[in-house]
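@channel anyone free to eyeball this complex?
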Amino acid sequence: RKEVEQDPGPFNVPEGATVAFNCTYSNSASQSFFWYRQDCRKEPKLLMSVYSSGNEDGRFTAQLNRASQYISLLIRDSKLSDSATYLCVVNPSNYGGSQGNLIFGKGTKLSVKP
Amino acid sequence: DTEVTQTPKHLVMGMTNKKSLKCEQHMGHRAMYWYKQKAKKPPELMFVYSYEKLSINESVPSRFSPECPNSSLLNLHLHALQPEDSALYLCASSQEGIRTDTQYFGPGTRLTVL
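replying in thread with the prediction:
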């Protein structure tokens, strides 16, 4: 099983649609979880951290299910500018000490059409 | 200000050249990272510096040599590269380098090895 798995897409949706991305991770001791977005030929940019209680930022909602080792991102009322690749990112460190090793999923490509 | 800067933006080099990539951040972050990203793939971690000491080297070939002259700067020295080393090289930084840190990425250097 890969460490972080995502549906590669592409997801082609009309403006205003609601779209959901899913991600699973293999290391049950993983400590922190993030969604990044990456535009073509640009660097990854943090979209949001993901907490067990779930968190929402405007049109974006992230959920974490530790029991199922599953992370989700919901985008409501999608805009043309949401078109990008969405990367599920996990810090799998499960030992003492301070390490910031991130494991990236392969990304899900979203294309929002007018 | 969550800015990480990288120079140069683009670099073309021959297999016998020696060049360096530079990364800078002024956020007071104490952990800095080098990643390599090939087209349509997620970033792959190369090196981690924590408090100016190399803490992770992900079995990177010795033709890549990192250097952290101070807490704000990170260099990647390149020598005798191969065409397959052509990629986007991303620098990132985070506050402490601990498991729950958020990493902020620079815009990257797009490297082509002829």
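from a first look: Chain B touches chain A through 28 residues (CB under 8 Å).
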